[in-house]
Each structure stands twice: as C-alpha cells, then as structure tokens.
Amino acid sequence: MPDKEKKAKHNNSSDSGSSASVKINDKRIKNYTGDEESERDYLPVRRSQEYKSGCLGGLMYLVFILCVSIVLACFAWMAASDALALNKDSVSATISLPTDIFETVTEEVTDEDGNFTGMKEVSKADIDFVSSALKESGIIEYEWLFKLFCRFSDADKKIDPGTYELRSNLDYRAIIKKMQAGSGAAVTVDVMIPEGYTMHQIFMLLQENGVASYEELMYSAANSSFNYSFLDPDKIGDASRLEGYLFPDTYQFYVGMQASSAINKLLSNFNAKNTADMQKQLSETGYSLKDIVTIASLIEKEAAVDVETGVDERTLVSSVIYNRLRSDMTLGLESSILYIHQNYEGSPTAEMLSEDSPYNTNINAGLPPTPICNPSLAAINAALNPAETNYYYFYYDKEAGSSRFFTYYNDFLAFVETQRNEENG
Question: For the whole model, what pTM was predicted?
C-alpha cells in the first residue's frame, strides 16, 4: 500500500476514535456548548439533580398555598359565622350603654347633589366600649370585625343610650338595630311619679329606677332645649324653669335613656293637659300660666285630700290664696319656705320662718318665684276655679282629719291655741 494511502487511513481512524467529529462538506459541526460534536452528544439524555429539586420545591409550594387557602377559608367562615350569626350558641345578655360614652359632634348636611345645606348635631357612640361590652357578654366573638362593620355602616351614629336585652343569634346589623330606643330590645321600667313631688324628688326617683342619673337630669333641666311655649326661654341655664311642669303620672321609661328624653316625656304630658278649655279659664283669671301653676303647687302642698273620707280642701285653700293676694297680704304658707329645705322633715323652725328668701311667704307678699312642686291636674283646676269664700286663714285639725277655715284673725288664733294646748297635753 502506498505511503499516502496508509497515512490517510491512519488519520481517518484517529479522527473517528479520538474526537468522533463529523465532517460535512469539509466543515466540522459543533454542539450546543460550542465544542465540536462528538458521540456523547447522541447518547440518551438523563434528568439532572437540579430538575428533581425543582419539582420537589414546586410541590411544596403548592402544598403551602393549599394550606394557607384552607386556613383563610376557615378564618373567613368563622368571621362570617359571627357577623351573620350562623350556627352560634344561643346566649342572652343585658347590655348597658351609659350616656357618658356618647359625644355630640357637629357635622355638615348636604343634599342629594352633594351641596352644603347647613350643620347639624349628631350623637356618636364609643364603638370601642360597645364592642367590648358585646364581646364580654358573649354576644359577639370578634371585636375587630364588629368595629370594622361599624366603621362602614356608621353604626356609631345609630346607637342610642340605654339598656338592651340582646341575643347571640342576631347578626351584626340586627344587633345595631336593637341598640336603638324603641327597638323592642330596650329594657323599660314603669315609674309612678306622685302628685306634689318636687323636681329634686322626681329626679332622685328616676335615678333609683335606672332611668338616668340625677346629675344628668339636672344638667339637662338647665341646658337642654325643650320646645314648649310655657317654658321661659330667658331662663336657659336655670333648672328651676321646669319646676311645676313635670306632670305627675305613671310613665314607662327606657332604662339608661337620655336625660333630656326622659324629661321631655313629663313636659309633653303637661303640654297635653294644657287644653283649649284650660287656656280659656286661664284668660278669665287674669293670671299667667306660671302664676296658676305656682298657686296649684301651693294648693297641692297645703290642702288635705282623703278619697276614703271624701275630704277635698283644694278649692277652699285656693280661695284663701286668692283672697290674700287681692288684699296684698302675705300668704304665710309654711310649705313655701320648706321648698328650699327639701331634706328637712317636720314643721319649719322659727329661724327658717325668718329667713330672707323670696320663698319665705311669711315676710314677702305675693307668690314665690317658682312653683314649689309639680301639681296634679286637680290642683291646677282648683287654682283656675277657686271656691267663693271670705276665708283668709286655715289650720289643720288633727282630730277631724281636715282643716278649719276662718275669716277673722282672732278666731284663727284662738283655734291655733287650742290645738297647741292639746299637742302639749
């Protein structure tokens, strides 16, 4: 074999064995790494370790997402169950919302087009207090969720002071609706206000029955706006402006209600009693409504009334008051001076009867500056329709259980002396 052929064979054999390169049209083909192709490039491909790790990571991520989704779904279901009252245990509780958790703010008022039309006062509740009370009583489970609902529903402006009986099977919307005056869930109490009670006594009675605190009632009496013509608008800031107009009757109040609302019930009742017929009688007397109510309050305190025995001195006592007023005499009524000593029991002392006070009708002529109690309708009618008598004096006869009336002072003094002698034995 010629040397050239041997050399060529040797070269071909060397190329195929060592580099396994492929030569096409005198050009060598390279693989994806940039090297010349070799036999290795045509072997079956095996998956790398990195590929296996990537699959495992993806599977773990999927499991994580599923777990998070399940947890969120369970959380959402629990939240929805509380907000919508789904499958909740039945729990009943009494919730009290005192007036001091409410504040009055001024807000702008706009029309349907968003145009400013004025300002108004709005009462807003402390939702933190409300949600905490509901949570502690077992009515709701999640305070934060209830607060969030209240924020989007303006619930703080819809809730009223009071005491409410609530159940856990109410959804959030129903709970808020129930915490409103007149909702049916508000706890009520019946209070009988006796005839002749002073404003002080009435407010203490309302406090004892949980309607409102004495301090709140007194503040409201002085400062709240009550739209009644019989109240003097110049007396705003003075609680005594209501004395005489808190009509005695039996009322149903909401426990823990606003003081102004409780007072308004009494004033509204008085206003209803102030009929056209009463106004006509009033015009015939020549006295103002305040004067008539003041006279009626004196009658209420001084006149003996006994339904069982039929004793009713109201019109007679009324005649004495009018006769003395016409004669420019002092009224000399002990009940008037006792008005400023309401915690005192018994007859007034000599020191009291000499006090320099406009309520001392022993030394001051005319009527006291305000009514001394809240009179009954019967006492008001007696003030409008006094009996026609010549009486100027009266004194209570303990043995008879009624008063004796006199025209002359000496007769009056003689009877008083006999009564005192009997008392001293």
Answer: 0.74
